[in-house]
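ok, trying the design again with the full structure, not the truncated one.
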């Protein structure tokens, strides 16, 4: 009986070991499945002397253009972008939107949504200022896209 138990136990241990290695190896790839925020121009918390003409955001992986956008709102909640979000870059990892000319001094909220090339979505936001500094450094935030 002891020998029979050993023969059944060994294949189960091999399967468990292979499964563990697979999880460990694929774990980092699963974490990178989202197109997380990398950097932007203007940067979160920027205090600009004059109005920028665009907002450009770069992500850690490529985007699908049809479900990705940037909106920029003034402190009254009015859109100040031109509603022309465009995916850019050789690897589609950037997105840009044009702004209305000569934005007045104030704080601006950049709100974005992206869908990565592999189908995972994120939303995020940050602030920048024209002629003033955003409170709390305009900290960027992101979250999984609501289903």
């Amino acid at each position: 009986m002891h020998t029979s138990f050993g023969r059944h136990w060994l294949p189960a241990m091999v399967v468990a070991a292979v499964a563990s290695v697979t999880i460990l190896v694929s774990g980092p790839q699963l974490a990178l499945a989202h197109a997380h925020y990398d950097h932007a121009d203007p940067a979160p918390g920027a205090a600009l002397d004059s109005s920028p003409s665009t907002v450009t955001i770069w992500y850690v992986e490529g985007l699908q253009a049809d479900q990705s956008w940037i909106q920029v709102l003034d402190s009254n909640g009015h859109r100040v972008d031109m509603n022309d979000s465009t995916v850019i870059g050789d690897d589609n990892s950037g997105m840009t939107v044009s702004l209305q000319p000569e934005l007045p001094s104030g704080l601006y909220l950049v709100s974005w949504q992206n869908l990565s090339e592999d189908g995972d979505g994120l939303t995020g936001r940050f602030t920048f200022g024209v002629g003033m500094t955003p409170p709390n450094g305009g900290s960027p935030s992101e979250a999984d896209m609501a289903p």
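Keeping the full-length input from now on. The helical segments are 2-31.
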